[in-house]
Design brief:
The complex is a heterodimer. Chain A contains no helices and eleven strands. By secondary structure, chain A is an all-beta fold. In chain A, strand 4 and strand 5 form a beta hairpin. By secondary structure, chain B is an all-beta fold. The chains are: A mainly beta, B mainly beta.
Chain lengths: 112, 113
Amino acid sequence: DAGITQSPRYKITETGRQVTLMCHQTWSHSYMFWYRQDLGHGLRLIYYSAAADITDKGEVPDGYVVSRSKTENFPLTLESATRSQTSVYFCASGERPNYGYTFGSGTRLTVV
Amino acid sequence: GENVEQHPSTLSVQEGDSAVIKCTYSDSASNYFPWYKQELGKGPQLIIDIRSNVGEKKDQRIAVTLNKTAKHFSLHITETQPEDSAVYFCAASMSQAGTALIFGKGTTLSVSS
């Protein structure tokens, strides 16, 4: 099916563990993005990628790692999860930085 | 970097009334201003956007206006309906490579019948 999919939909992990959130898009969009959504903060940009093997930091990158070996995939890794990383994470893709992005359904991550 | 302020944070209206949400941006180089609607448990969905060479854009009951001089833009929803209840986000970005949409903090719109 065409679209952008995130997995898992829900995840509970312990403090200090590594966890990877997956994002896959079928449009071959050049740009992909990771945002986190927290009450009172709206959507904050974590990392983005303009093409395969090109990534850049956003507003809140600390504690996160990304990679983009293939155009269609953009995984987000929390190397050592902390409680402050409890959030809803959204992946998005778009043709250009100033063009409408399509968002995935989100991953709700809880760090205990 | 770009900073987007959005007001109000919550808005309650009666069905049939109009709703207005306002945003300001800081970087005069920004030239693309989309609005997203987020329903409970879902990802944000693009509902309308405007570029810096246009002052106003309409799509049925929704419209967006842009004032480049004042660096603010607004979303107008007329004849509101209960299904308009959601969180609305404004955003801004530039056209050059190495940039991304920066979002406001969102407005929770409640439409009561």
